[in-house]
Structure formats: structure tokens, C-alpha cells
Structure prediction request, 460 residues.
Amino acid sequence: MSTLRLSSLMHCFQGVPPCNVATCSRDGVPNVTYLSQLFYVDAQHLAMSCQFFNKTRRNLDEHPYAAVQVYDPTCFEAYQIHLKFVRSETSGPLFDAMALRIDAIASHSGMAGVFKLLSADVCEVLFIERLEGFLEPNLAPPNAVADDPSTLRNELRALQVIGERICRAADLESLLDRTLESLDELLGVHNSLVLLSEDDARLVTIASHGYGEAGIGAEVALGQGLIGTVARERRSLRVSGMREGLRYGRAIRERVAEQGDEDQLRPEIPLPGLPNAGSQIALPLIVQDTLLGVLAAESKRVLGLDDWQEAVLQVVATQLAVAIDRLLEEEDEEEEEAEPIRPSMLGFSKAPPRRFTFYRNDDCVFVDGEYLIRNVPGKVLWKLLKAYQEQGRQEFSNRELRLDPWLGLPAVKDNLESRLILLRKRLLEKCPDVRLVPVRRGHFALELDRPIELLERDSA
Prediction:
């Protein structure tokens, strides 16, 4: 009897590389095929994904025995696991966990609703054997001991430091930036981003780390890709070995453009992402029953996000969600009394004026012919620019924005601060000579180093 434990083969169940399964019919006719997903259930059970009523499933119904060959991507040793089919589950926690990964992949490939999980086929593990001689002698390095404390970071210390930084954050922008910086410094998560809910249908990228300023303002629809699927289902998901499968939807616009339908496209900002990501994770930011956004991270390595990192990120996501909710609540409290409006006293350089164009049909703002921002942040910017041009105003308050019916902010949870952060970052990226600068609680100033020209149109 083998002494190998199923829990010691966790790297083999990440789909890097894919495993294969062998079954046979009642008459003894064999069938070998690749398996889409092999899921660890407990120390005695694995679950195989069933997307189609295929020969593997028919064989299991006729002869409930199977052999699965799996590979450890860290050393490429091979194992054969002998199974006995127990039951199929078409609902419940196990089914939902396996379906979440498949749904995320399907949404990227345009197969949503087609490539879907039909059942989770639970099997009892009879015994495990190492396939001797699979590699040449002395080429396979010894297995890393995952539980060796010397190979792991001190996650409790990391949680302590990150928790302290989250609690000390005075505003939403510093909260998000410091949290992502801490993930890099303390957890080795070098590429991460935060998206906040814009409405019931989409999320907007408001902070990123490891990508520069690129991608700020990028939108993800609920159900789109890994991030959108996690937001829709409100469940965390970690995926390994998906270099080509999960790409955050960055190729959607290119495909549409290739078909000659550029006129149907609205200005988009590509979501930041590594071109060769090996592993990705997304975690919902939830307070009570409200989805505030998603925390996402990725790594170039196929197993770059380990179990302990996922566990720590779960705790960080919970703390981050509570802090975001707290800061948004504080922002809604009484603001300081506004100072009298003062005219602009700024001197301009000899550079040509910035030309801003506002398109009324979709609340979209272009600067010098290039897309800048849209929706509520676009309307906010247009309001500020017009007030500056017509009245010479420099200083504005959050309160006056909330009271302006033209902006269409909801009466409760308007996320105004997150929209202003997005606007500030987009201006910094696209036209740094026009800035929004906080001056005191609930007030900010519009600073310009160049003159501006404003043009308003019905549509592009």
C-alpha cells in the first residue's frame, strides 16, 4: 500500500500541466483523454470536471474505476492515482467552486454558456503510486517541503503590518496605494490592482501596483473574465497555468476592430496585466451584502501565488473592504465651511492651450483629440473646467458636486471620492498640466499650467 498522501500532491491539481484520465467501458474498451479540472476535495476524495456527456462519463457509469496521471510542475515528477467513482454533484459548494474557474475561462474565450460545468464527479482515492523512471535518473530535484517554516514568509507579521497601515490610512487614495505597496513588500505580490464598483454592472480600476499608471480607469463588466466572474459570484478564485486562457479581456477590442466595427467602439483603457502571467487571483471586497469592488493580483510564475498567500490575501481583502466602507462613510459627513470663491491668479507658460471636448451623448471627455475619461468623472471634469473658464474659479467642494443634479450622483453611497481619485490619476497620466489638488477636508483646487479651450458636441 502506498504511503503517499493526497495532500502532498497539491501542486499537481493546479492544471500545470494538465492531467489525463484513463477509463474503460463495461466491455473493457479503454479511453484516455485530458481532464479539464481535477479538484482536491479532501484527504480521500478528488473530483473530476464534466463539461460534456463524453465517453469518460459513460465509462464511469458502466465501470466505476479510473486512473489519473498527474504531474508536479515544480519538479515534473509523475504520479498515478487510482480512483473509484462515487457520485456526481450538480449543485452545492463543491460544484460552485469548480464551476467558478470554468466560467472565468469561458468568458474570455467567448464560450460562456457553452463551455460550462455539468457535474462534479466525485471519486474515492484507492491508492497513489509514484511513476518511477518517468524522468532520467538524478534529474528530478527533491520535492520542496511546503510546510518548512524556513521557506515561508512570516505571514502573521505581514498581516500585522498591513493591518496597521490600513487602519492608519487617512483617505481612500492613500489606503489603496499603501495596501498594494505592502502586498509587494511583505507578501511578494508584485503586481496587483483594485477595482471599485461603478454601478450594478461594472467595476473601474482605481489603483494599481507594478504596472505604472497604465490601466487606471479601465472597466470590467460583471461576469467578464476572472475579475468580473469573481465580482458576479462574490467568491474568490485563484487560477494557475493560464498564460493564454485568462487575459482580462485585453484582446476584445482588437478582435472587434479587425472586423471593421471600430465605429461601434467606445473609448477603452486596457486593463493592466502581465503579458505572460502564469497565475492570477481575484478576491471580492464585500461589507455585509454590498460588493465594493475586487482586489486582484498576478504573477509570472505558474505557481507564483501559493496557498498561504491566498489565505493572507483573504484576510487583507476583508480588512480593505471594511476600511474602504469606513472612509466612504466619513466622506459623507459634514464638510468644512467653504471659503469665498477666488479668481485664478495662475500664470501660464507659452505652451499652446489644452483643447477639451465633451460629448453629451455618453458624457465622454477628450483632450487634444485623445480619450481622457467618461461617465460621472467626465461630467465632474467638464463642470470644473466650465466654472474655471466662465467664472475664474479654482476651488470647489465635494458638497457642491453632490448637490448638482446634472451629475446624477445617487443619494446614498455615491462613491464621489473614488471618482475624484480616478479623475486625478487620469489627468496626471494624460495631461499633468491640469491637476486636482486637495486643499482641506471636502475641498480641492483646479490648477492649470496652460490655458484651456472648451468644445461641446452631441456625439463623436
User: Anything to note?
Assistant: Confidence is low (pLDDT under 50) at residues 138-153, 244-253, 340-346. The domain at 6-130 is CATH 2.30.110.10 (Pnp Oxidase; Chain A). The chain is about 30% helix and 30% strand. The radius of gyration is 26 Å.
